[in-house]
Each structure stands twice: as structure tokens, then as C-alpha cells.
Design the sequence.
């Protein structure tokens, strides 16, 4: 996975993603935290990460149209979290979520997909030397988060 590293504002990227997803629907995306965070990363890959996470938050929330996105940073990392108020995930399934082709109750639910989005998302974040994780409550919602290093020397090795 080759990266094309440039410097850009990840908050701006996230605003663009929300606009794109909302073009034909009416979700309530609430952005919280910082107004601008300049990072060194692969813009298109991080855009893909956000589309995957926000897309999942929308898809797996039939009972809610609210998605909360929080962005903050310290000297070392920027942290982005995407919280939804949807179906949630059984804690037993959490360890498998980032596996290739894995889908919770693949044959039992009404949501279509390939089970590739989170696999690709985790690959992209790991390639940037970041971390990714999730906490979730069945029936209440999920919170997916990732970090990316602020220092370009951590990104390009
Ligand atoms: P696609 O390849 O189109 O993204 P997908 O959405 O099924 O298909 P992933 O994005 O990799 O695949 O997600 C894997 C599985 O994790 C999903 O099938 C779903 O069961 C579960 N999942 C992912 N995000 C959420 C979420 N926000 N809320 C509840 N379940 C989720
Ligand atoms: Mg998906």
C-alpha cells in the first residue's frame, strides 16, 4: 500500500465527507472538538477511511439519523471518533470486526455489504502508524476511533 503524503486539514476533509454523504440524505452530522488540525497523511486514503466509518454509522443506524464526530489532538496524535446511536455490536464479535470479509450475522440481517470496509480502514490506519479501535453497546450504538501521528517522520518511514 503506497502512500502519497501531503499536508492538509483533517477537519476540512471530514466536513467534505459529511457533505458528500449528505448530498442525497439528511443525516445530522455533529462535528465537535477542534476547528483545524493540520496533519501529514495520504488525503485520499484518509478520505476513504472517513467514508467507510461514516457510511457504517449511517447504514447501521436505522433508528437514528444522528452521527457525532469528534476531533482533537495533542503533540503526538490526532484522534478522530465517529459515534452512532444505531444497532450496536455484540461484545463477542468485536475482536473480528477488522477481519477481511467479516460481517456480524452476515446471513441474518438486512444490511448489504462485503465486509471489506473496516478491513481496508484498519490497513490504511496501520500503514500511517496509527491505531484504530471500537467500543459498542448492543442496541445503543457504536464508537469507532482512530489516531494518526502528528509528526511526519512517524508517517513516512
Ligand atoms: P462494506 O465492505 O460495504 O463496508 P460492511 O459494512 O458489511 O460492508 P465493514 O464496514 O467491514 O463491512 O463492517 C464489518 C461488519 O461490522 C458489518 O457487516 C457490521 O456487521 C459491523 N459494523 C460495522 N460498523 C458498524 C456500526 N457502526 N454499527 C454496527 N455494526 C457495525
Ligand atoms: Mg462498511
Sequence:
Amino acid at each position: 500500500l503506497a502512500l502519497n503524503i501531503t499536508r492538509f486539514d483533517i477537519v476540512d476533509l471530514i466536513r467534505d465527507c459529511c457533505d458528500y454523504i449528505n448530498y442525497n440524505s439528511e443525516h445530522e452530522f455533529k462535528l465537535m472538538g477542534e476547528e483545524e488540525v493540520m496533519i501529514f497523511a495520504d488525503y485520499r486514503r484518509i478520505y476513504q477511511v472517513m467514508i467507510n466509518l461514516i457510511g457504517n454509522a449511517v447504514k447501521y443506524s436505522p433508528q437514528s439519523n444522528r452521527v457525532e464526530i469528534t476531533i482533537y489532538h495533542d503533540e503526538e496524535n490526532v484522534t478522530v471518533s465517529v459515534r452512532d446511536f444505531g444497532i450496536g455490536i455484540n461484545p463477542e464479535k468485536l475482536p473480528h470486526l477488522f477481519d477481511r470479509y467479516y460481517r456480524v450475522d452476515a446471513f441474518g440481517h438486512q444490511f448489504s455489504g462485503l465486509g471489506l470496509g473496516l478491513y481496508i480502514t484498519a490497513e490504511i490506519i496501520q500503514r500511517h502508524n496509527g491505531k484504530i479501535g471500537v467500543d459498542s453497546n448492543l442496541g445503543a450504538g457504536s464508537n469507532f476511533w482512530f489516531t494518526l501521528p502528528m509528526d511526519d517522520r512517524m508517517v513516512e518511514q
